[in-house]
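During the first year of the project, the team set up a workflow for recording each protein of interest as an amino acid sequence followed immediately by a discrete structure-token representation. This format lets reviewers and collaborators read both layers of information side by side without switching files. As required by the reporting guidelines, we include two representative entries from the current panel. The first entry is reproduced here exactly as it appears in our internal archive.
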Amino acid sequence: MASAEEIAGELRARIRSGDLQPGDRLPTMAELGTSYEVNRQTARQALIALKDEGLVEYRGGRAGTFVRLRPTQRLVRARSMERDELGYYSGPDVQHWRALTQTEVDHTARVPEDIAALLGVEPGSPAVVRRRLNGDPEIREYRQLTDSWLHPAAVAAVPAIAGDSGLGGIYDRIEEWAGAPLVWEEEATSATPSPAEAEALLLPTGVPLLRLLRCSIVTEPPTGGGPLVVEVNDIRMSGEQFSVRYPLERGPSARWPVTPATGNFYTPVTPADPGPPGDL
């Protein structure tokens, strides 16, 4: 008698090998029960596991469960700050993208812990955030959510960025105030989408978010002090539809000609003992 994990593993392998193609119907729970000598609940758990991974979709009723058609290749998003007659945009692939919803400005939002660490404020402190949905007007699935978290000092110095920021948007207003160009840094990570994010981005069950956190920095604020992160842009998009590409530079320690290696990186080491698991 097989477990749900074993059944899911065999079906998963058939999907990944191409034995089961997109659009192919999977065995029903009754058929799986007969083949693997398991009850209906075990068969159901196996199918749910594949659905949660985004490999299959349930079409309801007697239709059954089918291998889901997934993008065969991702749109590679080259990351750079560009500019045209509308202002700044992030990469040559999205120049034609436009706002799909009106920008929502929230003046009473509480800063999440990871955003707070980048913005340099206390977690849970109040801040202004500008939320919007952008996308390709011609391709329905090509879209992203953007939450623009503003540093309170920047809002105090440039009140327009907390409302109608005018032509060129908040980056033009900030650069006018700073009298100098913004500097940007960005990191890429991933996340599990909330139900609202999945709905806005048209994500099937099991598809993760590709998440980019971009910091906008004024290196010498007119108000004095060191560099100020005036904004953190929290960008979320489908991890199935998109990937990002950055240039990877040689660091100073890897300048050519390189120093000959003196050890073997691939010699296995024993990981440190993590100790007993903590309470959840």
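The second entry, processed by the same pipeline in the following quarter, appears below.
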Amino acid sequence: MEKKQNSVEWLIRIVQSCIAPNYIPQEIIEQAKAMHKEEIRVAYMDGAFEKIRHLDGKEFIMPTDYYNETFGGNNE
């Protein structure tokens, strides 16, 4: 299975290629990657629990609505 590039890796690549190599300190890169990994883990677990809750007939929230409510974004 081919590894996909995540949004953090994409941003790092763009900054380093368009602004300057090594513009972002390595410790900040590692922290951002760790935060992203935790966000994905939590989202995966929340999705599994949400599916179980949905099967129980409880309220289901669409992922975009969850994102907007959680992070205050309006981006689709």
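For the second entry, the following points were noted during internal review. The first helix runs from residue 7 to 18. Residues 26-76 form one domain. Both points are flagged for discussion at the upcoming steering committee meeting.
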